[in-house]
Design the sequence.
C-alpha cells in the first residue's frame, strides 16, 4: 500500500505544482468557483476532506500522534494532509486505511 500511496503522492504533487505554476494558488480556488458544476466539485472536496480529517483525528489520538500538522496541510493543500499522515505513519501502527475509512471503522 505504501509504495502505491507514495506514487500517487508524487504524481499528484507534480501535477499540483504544475497547476499552481500555471494559475497560482488562488487561481485554483477561483476555478473551483467558476460555475455551478465547479462549485459542486469544490463542496464535495470540502466534505470529503472534513470526513477524512475526522478519521485522521481519531487515529492520531489512538496512536499518540499529533493531529494538527495534518489538519493544517489538509486545510491548505487538500488530500496531501491525509496522504502524508499515512505515508509518515510508523509501519503497522496506524489503523487508518482507505478501506477502514470507507467501512466506517
Sequence:
Amino acid at each position: 500500500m505504501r509504495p502505491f500511496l507514495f506514487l500517487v503522492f508524487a504524481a499528484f504533487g507534480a501535477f499540483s505544482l504544475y497547476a499552481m505554476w500555471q494559475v497560482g494558488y488562488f487561481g485554483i480556488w477561483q476555478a473551483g468557483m467558476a460555475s455551478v458544476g465547479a462549485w459542486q466539485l469544490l463542496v464535495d472536496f470540502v466534505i470529503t476532506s472534513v470526513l477524512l480529517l475526522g478519521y485522521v483525528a481519531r487515529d492520531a489520538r489512538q496512536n499518540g500522534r499529533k493531529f494538527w500538522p495534518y489538519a493544517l496541510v489538509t486545510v491548505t493543500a487538500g488530500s496531501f494532509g491525509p496522504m502524508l499522515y499515512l505515508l509518515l505513519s510508523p509501519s503497522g501502527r496506524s489503523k487508518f486505511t482507505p478501506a477502514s475509512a470507507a467501512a466506517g471503522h
Q: What stands out?
A: The mean pLDDT is 88. Residues 15 and 21 are 10 Å apart (CA to CA). DSSP finds six helices and no strands in the chain. Residues 36-63 form the longest helix (28 residues).
